[in-house]
Structures are given as structure tokens and as C-alpha cells.
Amino acid sequence: MRQEDHIARYAADLAQACGMHPDLDLLHGVVTACGPLIYDPATEALTPQDLPAFRKSLIRKLGPLPAVDEAIQAAWETYETPGPRYRAVLFYILVQHFGKQALFRPKAG
Questions:
Q1: Residues in Cβ contact with 43 at an 8 Å cutoff, skipping those fewer than 6 apart
Q2: Strands 45-46 and 85-86
Q3: Is 21 helix (H, G, I), strand (E, B) or coil?
């Protein structure tokens, strides 16, 4: 599956499962930051057991964050879906929550 296909899937999940209207430029930046993990079915989606490793990755990419555990739990609950919870979708929700959008938007010029 190509990156554009992943972005379309994640945008649909953000709209349908989270009630959000995703910024596609920001989502593209977030998906790019997730790297090759989104292309492996074993790492594309997260389970509750994956959250400690996800937390470390989030802090590595965003820097120190206040109340990070509570924010991750809130994002997990916001992402209400019977299917898989995708890493990039949770990451997008948390980038928005912490106001770190500038880190993932395309640079002008």
C-alpha cells in the first residue's frame, strides 16, 4: 500500500471514528514521521500493550510533554473504533492536542 493510500485510510478514521476534520498537509507530515512502521501490519496498529513504547516514541519526536499519559489515554478513548487503532491517527490526535503542528507541516519556500 502506498503512502497516499495510508493517508486516505487515516483521514477516514479521523473523520468517522474521531469526529475530526483532518488537515491533510499535517496528516501527511505525521505519516511521514511515523516512518516504516505504518507499512508493517504488526506495527501499523496499536494495542494497549503497545502504548508504553508509543509513549517513548511520542516524547522522542515531540519533546517533553505535560501530562502525556493522560493525553494518550484521552486520545485512545477519542479514537473509538471496533477495528484497529492506527499509530498515525493517535499520533495526529496528540500532535493536535499538544499544539505541535508546526513540527510536521511542510516548510514554506
A1: 37, 87
A2: antiparallel
A3: coil
Q: Exposed e or buried b for every residue in 18-48, given b needs 16+ CB within 10 A?
A: bebebbeebbbbbbebbeeebeeeeebbbee
Identify residue 7 by its one-letter amino acid code.
Answer: I
Cα–Cα distance, 52 to 39 (Å, whole number): 21
* Tens place of pLDDT per residue across the chain (109 aa): 899 999 999 999 999 999 999 999 999 999 999 999 999 999 999 999 999 999 999 999 999 999 999 999 999 999 988 889 999 999 999 999 999 999 998 776 5
Residues 104, 95: contact at Cβ < 8 Å? yes
CATH of region 3-103: 1.10.238.120
